[in-house]
Amino acid sequence: MDNYLQTKGRIFDIQRYSIHDGTGIRTIVFLKGCHLRCRWCCNPESQEYEIQNMTIGGKDKIVGEDVTVEEVMKTVMKDLPYYKRTNGGLTLSGGEFLNQPEFALALLRAAKANGITTAVETTSNADFKVIEKMLPYIDQYLMDIKHMDSNKHEKFTQSKNELLIENAMKISKSGLTELSIRVPVVPGFNDTPEEIRAIARYTKTLPNVKRMHLLPYHNFGYDKYIGLGRDYPMGSVPSPSNEKMNELLEIAKQESLVECQIGG
Predict the structure, then answer these.
(1) Looking at residue 106, what is its pLDDT?
(2) N or C terminus of the chain: which is more exposed, having fewer CB within 10 Å?
């Protein structure tokens, strides 16, 4: 018997009524664990799979909870009327949801079984065979492409980018999901016209990409690093200005030939 609703996984948050990470009103389930260590990560509590203690606002907080798919879906189902009205649904995020493939696949299956559209926010840092099993259950695939230069990618994330770039092409060619490319614009990492142009040009080679989003860096995760007893890797680096973001947006529009926007 396929009792996938009892599949267990580890999450660190469920966020209802979100209007980000997919269309419409969404419930975002944040899974714990990620192979990358992006310097600007705004959810440092997502990186380690282990359950952690974090101090926020002077209060101790346990970060991480083991749950079944059935338990998660009880929360997701509460907002079914909003999903129907807005073309919203369930989004899996993290961390990296692909680090818990059995749990993630079971969540996606459960959502589709209940008529709920699905989205994932991911770097695609996994064997494509793992991703391929999930594609039939994913309506919107939101994939980060952070940099085209593998060495610089590794310097800022502790991971090369060849697998990620290769998977973007395979996902796009599959035609099984709506693919969007998301670029975190990080000062000192990828905020030059040449770097955004390179990503946009690659996006143009992907046959089924719907849109490209430029996401401006912010330091909203600063307090979490302090609460985990960690230094904040980005230091005092400021967010990119609106002028800078609009300049890079125009470059993306010229090169990518798909819908481009700031944020999303």
Answers:
(1) 98
(2) N
